[in-house]
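Quick start: read one record
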Amino acid sequence: MIVAAYLYWPVIYLAVYLPFIVPRLPAWDHVPAVVVATILGGYVVVLLAAGRSLDHRRIALHAIGIALSVDAFSLAMSALRTPAFAKTFDGVDPWDALATAVHALMVLACFEAGRALGRATRARRSVA
């Protein structure tokens, strides 16, 4: 499941954004909130599921790794001037480190919540 957490954003970009959202952008004023909520909700579910079986050390390492991989993917797509990233590349921005740190903290929180949920369900099963 941890592999799905690493691949979530590239897959969403290539399998959902490019074929389904980019062609409709000229007709839309904005991407519908339900689409954004579904994509973000799916990310949270993947992170919760991935965190169920991790220990604290691996949670911290994977949270940093996922945040850095998403940042590297965004930087690569920006440099290639792909749709949604075409106007965002102005070189490496030092403030991007803050966004990466916040993303790592959010991933860490989701992993820890998933770990707690996993422990709670195991405890309930052992009691029953």
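The first helix runs from residue 2 to 21.
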